[in-house]
């Protein structure tokens, strides 16, 4: 039996594409998850461009690709942004901050797990790929 000390507290947020913020319509395009104690941060994107184009025919897919790549780079701690040099939990907080932008996230949600990678894969499948 697993003890509480074997479990890791984590937080995750769904990454969303919001083409017109004022309409509050979005499509889930990724997931970001963080465990502060382990200094662990992971993000993954699955951008279904055909689905986006079907829902929003005037979507700027090139700009979307660039913005999502910046999101991934910051989560990995790479790139030119000063945010990329912050600790994992600080990058997570910056990535999940409430903002009015075409790339947004859900509010962070907490959880406990013994396996961060397996939990990330399950959440990504349930919340992003199965949409």
Brief digest:
The chain is of the alpha+beta class. Helix content is 34%, strand content 25%. Helix 2 (61-76) runs antiparallel to helix 3 (88-95).
What labels describe this entry?
single chain, 131 residues, alpha+beta, 5-stranded antiparallel beta sheet, 4 helices, globular
Word description of this protein:
34% of the residues lie in helices and 25% in strands. The chain has helices spanning 49-55, 61-76, 88-95, 116-129, and strands at residues 8-17, 27-35, 40-45, 103-105, 109-113. Strands 1, 2, 3, 4 and 5 form a five-stranded antiparallel beta sheet that branches. Helix 2 (61-76) runs antiparallel to helix 3. The protein is globular and about 50 Å long. The mean pLDDT is 92.
Helix content: 25-40%
What is the residue-mean pLDDT, rounded to a whole number? Answer: 92
What general outline do the C-alpha atoms trace? globular
Number of helices: 4
Helix/strand-derived category reads alpha+beta
Low-confidence stretches: none
Q: Let me know the number of strands.
A: 5
Helix-strand string: EEEHHHEEH
Gyration radius, in Å: 15 Å
Could you state the oligomeric state of the chains shown?
Answer: single chain
Distance between the termini: 34 Å
Major sheet: 5 strands, antiparallel
How much β-strand is present in the residues?
25-35%
Question: What is the topological layout?
Answer:
Elements: E1 8-17, E2 27-35, E3 40-45, H1 49-55, H2 61-76, H3 88-95, E4 103-105, E5 109-113, H4 116-129
Antiparallel strand pairs: 1-2, 1-4, 1-5, 2-3
């Amino acid at each position: 039996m697993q003890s509480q000390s074997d479990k890791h507290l984590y937080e995750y947020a769904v990454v969303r594409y919001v083409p017109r913020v004022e309409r509050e319509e979005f499509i889930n395009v990724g997931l970001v998850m963080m465990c502060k104690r382990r200094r662990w941060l992971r993000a993954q994107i699955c951008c279904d461009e055909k689905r986006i184009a079907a829902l929003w025919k005037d979507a700027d897919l090139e700009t979307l690709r660039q913005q999502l790549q910046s999101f991934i780079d910051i989560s990995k701690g790479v790139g030119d942004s000063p945010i990329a040099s912050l600790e994992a939990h600080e990058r997570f907080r910056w990535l999940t901050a409430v903002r009015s932008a075409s790339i947004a996230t859900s509010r962070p949600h907490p959880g406990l797990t013994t396996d961060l990678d397996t939990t990330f894969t399950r959440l990504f499948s349930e919340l992003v790929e199965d949409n």
